[in-house]
Design brief:
- By secondary structure, the chain is of the alpha/beta class.
- The relative contact order is 0.10.
- Helix content is 39%, strand content 14%.
- Strands 1-7-6-5-4-2-3 form a 7-stranded mixed sheet, with helices on both faces. Strands 8-9-11-10 form a 4-stranded antiparallel sheet, covered by helices on one side.
Length: 425
C-alpha cells in the first residue's frame, strides 16, 4: 500500500469512528460533539456513576472488601503513607473495617496500637519474626501453647534463634536461665491445657531487669479478665478465633502494644510477611464484640458451676481451674484477674486408665470433641500431658480439658454424669 493509500485509509477509519461517536451520543440522548461518549454496557458495569447518598448509619459498621484502593489523583497516591492510618493505600494494609476492629480491640485492652493477623499462631509468628534475629534466644514456658513451641524448635532454631524453656512457676530457675542472648520472654496465663497461673508481675519485673521484651498470650483473658498493660507487659497477643469471634467459624489473631517504637517493628514485619485479613472475617469479629462481655462472663459462671460439681466426684483427682483454691497459681489469679473464662481441666484418679478416659469422652453427647474453645458449643479433649511435659508434670493420671459453651450448665453436668458411668463398667 502506497503512503497516499495508507493516509486515505487512516482518514476513512477516523471518519468512521467519528460517525460511531456521534451516533452513540444521539442514541444516548447526548449532544453531538460532546467530549466523551456514553459508556457501553460492559464499561458501565465497571464504572457506574452512581454514588449512594451520605448519612447512612447502622449498628454494624460496613464491610469493606478491597485489594485495590483508588486514589483521586497521582498526587494523592504519592502523598499516602501506608504506615499511618490516616488513609488507605492497599487492601493488605487495611480498610475501614479492619481499622475499626483494630481500634476497638485496642480500646478494650488499653493498648495504643493493634495489628490483625490471619490466626493466633500467625500473630505469635509476627512477634517472633519482628523481634528476633540470628544469635538471639527466646524463652517459652513449659506450659506454652504447643504449636508455639513447635515453631521455635522447628523454624526459629533453623534460623539461628535458640529456644530456652523455663518453668513459669519457679522464679529462681527462670532468672537463672536468662542469658545475654535472651531477647524475648513469652508469658502464658494460664498455661495451655494444665492451667497454671504464673506470677506475671514478678516475671515482667525480672524481664525488665534484663532488658527483655515481654509478650503475653492473652487469649484466655480476651482483654477482659487480664489487663496486661496494667501489669507492664510489652505485647499482648490474642487468638480472636476464640471469645471475640464467639461463633467457632473463623480464624484471626491480634498483636497489641502501647509502645510506638515496638509497634513500628511489628508493623514493618507485618507488611513484609504479607499478613492480612478479609473484611468479611473482620466483620464477624466486630459483630461478636457486641456480646463479648456477656458471653465471656456467661462462660465463666457456667464453667465454675461444672467445675464445682466435678470437684466433688470421686473419680476426679485434681481440678485445674485458676479461680479455685488448690489450682496452681490461684493466688496470682486472685490478685491479677477479674474473671476466669470458660476453660479448665481436670485429672482422673491414677487407677483410671487412658483407654477408659477416652471411652468416657466418647460417651459425651452435649460435649463435642474438637480443638479450640470459646465458641457456643462445649468441647472435651483428653490429653496425654506426661508425653507433652515429661517429668515436669505432677500427675500420672489422664487429663481432660473442657471448654464450657453456652448450654445450661445443669445439662452439661448431666451429660458428664452419664458419661462417667463408663468408668464403672
Amino acid at each position: 500500500m502506497s503512503s497516499e493509500e495508507h493516509g486515505d485509509q487512516l482518514d476513512q477509519n477516523l471518519a468512521t469512528n467519528r460517525e460511531l461517536h456521534v451516533a452513540e451520543h444521539t442514541v444516548m440522548g447526548a449532544e453531538p460533539g460532546a467530549m466523551h461518549p456514553s459508556p457501553r454496557a460492559a464499561t458501565l458495569l465497571q464504572h457506574s456513576p452512581y454514588q449512594p447518598p451520605p448519612g447512612f448509619d447502622a449498628v454494624q459498621p460496613a464491610t469493606h472488601r478491597a485489594s485495590t484502593v483508588l486514589f483521586a489523583n497521582v498526587a494523592a497516591m504519592r502523598a499516602r503513607d501506608w504506615r499511618r492510618k490516616t488513609g488507605y493505600t492497599y487492601g493488605l494494609h487495611g480498610t475501614p473495617t479492619t481499622f475499626t476492629l483494630e481500634a476497638r480491640l485496642a480500646e478494650i485492652e488499653g493498648a495504643k496500637h493493634a495489628l490483625l493477623c490471619p490466626s493466633g499462631l500467625s500473630a505469635i509468628a509476627l512477634v517472633n519474626l519482628a523481634l528476633l534475629q540470628q544469635g538471639d534466644a527466646v524463652m517459652l514456658p513449659t506450659n506454652v501453647y504447643n504449636p508455639s513451641r513447635d515453631m521455635a524448635e522447628k523454624l526459629l532454631s533453623g534460623w539461628g534463634i535458640a529456644l530456652q524453656v523455663y518453668d513459669p512457676m519457679d522464679l529462681a530457675a527462670t532468672h537463672a536461665a536468662i542469658t545475654p542472648r535472651t531477647r524475648l520472654l513469652w508469658l502464658e496465663a494460664p498455661g495451655s491445657v494444665t492451667m497454671e497461673m504464673p506470677d506475671l508481675r514478678a516475671l515482667v519485673a525480672m524481664a525488665r531487669q534484663h532488658g527483655l521484651v515481654t509478650a503475653l498470650d492473652n487469649t484466655w483473658g480476651a482483654g477482659l479478665a487480664i489487663k496486661p498493660f496494667a501489669l507492664d507487659v510489652d505485647i499482648s497477643m490474642q487468638a480472636l478465633t476464640k471469645y471475640q469471634s464467639g461463633g467457632a467459624d473463623m480464624l484471626m489473631g491480634a498483636v497489641l502494644t502501647r509502645d510506638d517504637a515496638l509497634h513500628d517493628k511489628l508493623l514493618d514485619a507485618h507488611m513484609r510477611l504479607g499478613f492480612g485479613v478479609s473484611g468479611d472475617d473482620a466483620s464477624l469479629v466486630l459483630r461478636g464484640l457486641h456480646s463479648l462481655h456477656l458471653r465471656y462472663h456467661a462462660h465463666d459462671q457456667a464453667a465454675r458451676c461444672v467445675a464445682t460439681w466435678l470437684q466433688s466426684r470421686p473419680e476426679v483427682q485434681a481440678l485445674l481451674h485458676p479461680a479455685f483454691p488448690g489450682s496452681p497459681g490461684h493466688a496470682h489469679w486472685v490478685r491479677d484477674c477479674s474473671a476466669a473464662a470458660g476453660l479448665f481441666s481436670f485429672t482422673f484418679q491414677p487407677q483410671i486408665t487412658a483407654a477408659r478416659v477416652e471411652a468416657c469422652v466418647d460417651a459425651l453427647r452435649l460435649f463435642k470433641i474438637g480443638y479450640s474453645w470459646g465458641g457456643p458449643v462445649s468441647l472435651a479433649v483428653p490429653y496425654d500431658v506426661a508425653a507433652m511435659r515429661g517429668a515436669s508434670w505432677a500427675y500420672a493420671s489422664p487429663l481432660v480439658r473442657l471448654s464450657i459453651g453456652l448450654e445450661d450448665p445443669l445439662d452439661l453436668i448431666a451429660d458428664l454424669d452419664h458419661a462417667m458411668q463408663v468408668l464403672l463398667d
